[in-house]
Structure formats: C-alpha cells, structure tokens
Amino acid sequence: MKINSSEALERIRKEAIKALKLREESNDSSSAQACGLEKGTPHIQILCCGGTGCKASESAKIVENFRKSLKDHNIADKVDVVVPGCFGFCEKGPIVKIVPDNTFYTSVRPEDAEEIITSHIIGGIKVERLLYTDPGTGEHISDSKHMNFYRKQMRIALRNCGFINPEDIREYIARDGYKALSESLKRDSLDVLADIKASGLRGRGGAGFPTGVKWEIARKFDAPHKYVVCNADEGDPGAFMDRSIMEGDPNSVIEAMMICGYCINANHGLIYIRAEYPLAVERLKTAISQARKCGLLGDNILGTGFNFDIEIRYGAGAFVCGEETALIHSMEGKRGEPTLKPPFPAEAGYMGYPTNVNNVETLANIPAILTKGPQWFASIGTEKSKGTKVFALAGKINNVGLIEVPMGTTLREIIYDIGGGVKGGKKFKAVQTGGPSGGCLTEKHLDIPIDYESLAAAGSMMGSGGMIVMDEDDCMVSVAKFFLEFTVGESCGKCTPCRIGNKRMLEILTRITDGRGKMEDIETLENLAKVIKDTALCGLGQTSPNPVLSTLTNFREEYIEHVQDHVCRAHKCKALLTYSINPDICKGCSLCARNCPAGAIHGEVRKPFVINPEKCIRCGMCLSRCKFGAISVK
Ligand SMILES: Cc1cc2nc3c(=O)[nH]c(=O)nc-3n(C[C@H](O)[C@H](O)[C@H](O)COP(=O)(O)O)c2cc1C
Ligand code: SF4
Ligand code: SF4
Ligand code: SF4
Ligand code: FES
User: Fold this and answer.
1) According to the model, what pLDDT value does residue 27 have?
2) Does residue 86 line the site of ligand 5, with CB under 6 A?
C-alpha cells in the first residue's frame, strides 16, 4: 500500500471506511436484541480490549479462546476478532464488545469465551451475567452509552481508543486519519498554526502553556536542524492517560508530530518514552513502521516535498526526566537533570537546536482540531481552558479508569456521576489532582469547574491528569508524607532547596506520624514548603511542597491531633495506635495471646485478658483474631 498523494490517501480511506462501517453504525445502536448467526446476522465483530489493564487480566487468552472457538465452530469467516486499546472502564475489565448490537460485556474471563460464542454469536442470546449491573438500580445495562461511567464523557483525545485496531493503519485512516496532515500540507503552514492558536488548546503535560503560541515561538528560530519531541515519559504514580493513547491510537500522535514539524519547519521527530511501557513502545513501533512503508513518513510526504521521520528514544523511568530540559539531556546521553530556562527548548533544545516539546495528549488533540475546525474545539470547555481533559481516576472510587470530560466539568460530577462515588459507601474525604505535585482538595471544592485556573486557585493543579480519591480511612498527614517520599526519591539532587529542603520536610512528617512531633514542627513545615516552592530550580522542586501545603490548609486539625493528642483518626499511623481489650466482652479464650508475636497479651483462661502497651508492636493481629469483638483500637 503506497500513499504518495492526497488522492491516494482518499482512495485508501474509502476502502478502509467500508471495513469499519459495521463498527461505526453499531456505535449508535443499543439493541436489546442480540445479533446472532442463527438469526441471520451476516457478519459479527468481537472487540476484546488489548490495553495493558485488560491484558494483565488475561485478555490475550480471551482473544485466543475466541479464535479457537470460532475455528471449532467453523464460523471464523463470519466473525472478526479485533483487539483495540483501552475502553476506559478498566475497573470492569477485561471488556468485550459485540458489533453490530453494541453489547458491552464486563469482567470477562478466558473461560467465558466459549459461552459468548455459542450463546450470543451463534444463538443470538446475550450472556446476561456478563452485562454491567448498575449499582444504583441493579439493572443490567448492555451498552456503554447508557452507563453512568460514559454518559458525561466526551472523547476527543481518546476518540479512537477502544474502537480501532491500533496495529492497523488503515483503521486509523478510516477514522479521518492523516486527513488533517494532508489538508495542512496544501495550506500555508502559518494558517495551520493560526488554527491551532485559535482553538485555544493548552499543553496537557502540566503547565498548560498555549500550544499554538509554543509552536509559533519554535517556528521563529532558524537552524539547520529542528526537532519535534513527544514527551511520553508519564511518570506520575497512578497515571496512564498518555500510555493508553499510545497503546490505543499511536497514529494520532505521529500525525500530530508531522503537522507540528510542518508548522515549525522541522523534519525530525523524537518520541521519548519510558522503557517500562512495552506495549505502548510496540504499538508505536508498529505504527511508525506502517507509516514509513506506505510513505506517510519519510521523504516527499504525499508528494508535497515535505520530509519528516520519527525515532523512538527510551527513558529509564526517572520522574524528573519528564521535565523537558531533563528529557532533552537524557536523550543527548547526559544525566537527566533539568537546567534553568531560558534558554527554552524552542531556542536551544536537543543538541542545541530549536526543539518543540509537547505532551502525548496535547498532540492527540491536534488532528481532531484541524479536521473539525478550531471553532468547534474552542466551543468546548471554559473561557480559558478549551476542549477536554483525560483523567486517570484512581483510589477509593467505584469506577477506576480512564475518563475524558469537557473542561469545566465539576469534581463532583467526575467522582459521583462518572466514578460512581466512594468505594464501600465510605465517606469522601479528599481528592488529589495533579499527581505527586498536586494538592488535596476537599468536599468544599467539589463544585468547582475543572480548568487550569480554578484548580490552581483552590490550591491544587491540573497536572497531567492523575486523580486520586481518598476516603475517611485515609490519614492526610500520611498522604502528604507518601507523596513527599516519592518526590524526595525522584529529586535529581542538583539544587539545594529540593535536595535538602524536601528531605528535612520528610523528616518532620515522619516525626509527626511516629508520634514524636512538636507543635513548632507545623510552622517549620509551612515555612520550609514556601521557601522550596520559591527557590527550587525546576518544576519538580517548585511543586513538591503542594501536598504538604494543601493538607496543612485543608486538614490542619489532623496535624494538630497527631502532635498534641497522639491520635491518628484514620488509624493509619501505627505508632499512634493503642490496642485494648474490653473486659466486659472478653471471654478469656486466649486466642489473641497465642497469636500475639510480641508476647504483649496476658491473662488467665476464662478471665479477661490484658494488653501490655509497652510490649505491643501494633501489628493488629489480635484485633483480626478475636471472634468476640473484644479488642478495639484508638
Ligand atoms: C518533574 C516534571 C515531570 C514532568 N513530566 C512530564 C511528563 O511525564 N509528560 C509530559 O508531557 N510533561 C511532563 N512535564 C512537563 C514538561 O516539562 C513540559 O512542560 C511538557 O512536556 C510540555 O508539553 P505540553 O505543552 O504539551 O504540555 C513534567 C514537568 C516536570 C517539572
Ligand atoms: S528542583 Fe529538584 S529535581 Fe529540579 S533541579 Fe532541583 S534538585 Fe533537581
Ligand atoms: S497489636 Fe499485635 S503486638 Fe499488639 S497486642 Fe495485638 S497482637 Fe500483640
Ligand atoms: S481473643 Fe478476644 S475473647 Fe479471646 S482472650 Fe483475646 S480478647 Fe478475649
Ligand atoms: S485496559 Fe481494558 S478497559 Fe482499560
């Protein structure tokens, strides 16, 4: 397949659309009736999620079982098995979708494959037990459109994830793939750039810098070589937005990098991805090789004289290497340490040449903006934050997964409507946005519309899109300590405030959670946090005090309780726990004493037992062993 002109691209698209028609039409249907070969359905497709989450739950085995069963039943020519990227609802994975009746099966096991084939695919009867059950109504819901998890979502960056086969460039082309590039190459690159500016797109990697303005700056610098870098490092704990885009729709990133190259006069693209994302690496490699083979990457692209090619560079998994100057140093074979800006990469980046660095999600928006128009994009979101944002919803929430919502959606809508509320009916306590450098927001912030400015004003930040929900069982001092432990471990050590200041903060937090805190520690923490924020060299150090500062603002009473009363209300800080036996309930069975690893419990059989607090190591064994509920912890 050679695509050497825009006409050739359109010809291929026409063919490719036919193959995807069944899936496109099914997307809008929600039939209570199942399709089935015995009912006369001529062709059926089975989509089985091939994202990392579902793969970890044996989705590859499910695919294998589907293929075997289709062969055994002699119907392999009537049923396709397609492996798309993440559907988003990872909590309920592995996901299997049946086309054309749009049935959405959840939590499928490899042994369910045969039943799906015999009952649904052949017999035309849905497998009820694998349908999603609405936790509110108890009803079975058979298509994703009617699930609360999807209802308020809007998919732009994730438009092809869970839909196309990411290993087949024709499926991307069928979804208007490479149309934005082909149309852009016919226009003056300044006009294309003006569209990106007009869309209002801002960087999704954390800082929210306007993408069009960034491209404009990079364009202004003339040099024999210029580079477009895709920042695919994504090191925030719990974040998987960018990885999922690369796994599910790698061509959207490639196409966007080429458009950027055209706008800033660059011919080289570099994708910096951490080596610990093997599936994303594989899918990118396949996409790059297919694009090269058909002439969409290389010289004289679409016969226009524009040349562009892409290389993959691997990161070794250091969070700081996501910072753009550190990333560039790492690609140059130097230590992954940030440097002061200016000069910005746009002026002196990779190998000293002008370089434009963009995040994966930022790039994934570009082709959609250009095919649908900048006004369309600018009409979504809030005044200063346009379009949508992808979040990795995690923590104590019912629906863990990947979501994309219009900017301006409230935290309440995300947590309760899409996320299904707090797990186990527990009380909501806080939500951390912005990854390890973000802040913890509370109930009173739930109705703020999510955009860059509102989150910053509330003491947190958009960051790249990590969102972790916490409940009443979480200790906010420990949460601050957890995130600080991460940033201390990831600090490159180049500047003093971050290298030493964060360590001192961590020591104080450790003292407080160990029950050795003093009241003046709280003030020292606050002062130190402010100094580090103001004086650290790069974004890692400048934002690392955020979890401490936001918990000090919103949960100060918990710090005071730890220090003054030696109490951790969430029972998370071991050193502050006191185990005791209620003599009125204790039956004197001795089970706790026999299981105590510290020999801290004594007593006479059939009389109340007693715990010696001096010897107790707070392991919780007695609490879990007592069958009479006689032991309590405070
Ligand atoms: C410590 C640190 C880690 C970062 N990690 C990432 C990352 O993993 N991915 C990313 O796109 N940007 C990351 N950034 C932001 C980048 O420096 C840069 O702003 C971004 O890649 C620019 O792309 P954008 O304008 O499309 O957002 C990080 C910044 C800091 C300070
Ligand atoms: S702030 Fe931290 S990560 Fe950034 S340069 Fe300084 S020591 Fe390194
Ligand atoms: S918490 Fe552990 S160490 Fe303490 S009394 Fe119970 S079993 Fe013994
Ligand atoms: S296990 Fe419970 S009932 Fe038995 S001795 Fe210990 S506290 Fe008393
Ligand atoms: S990985 Fe399958 S739904 Fe997310």
Assistant:
1) 76
2) yes
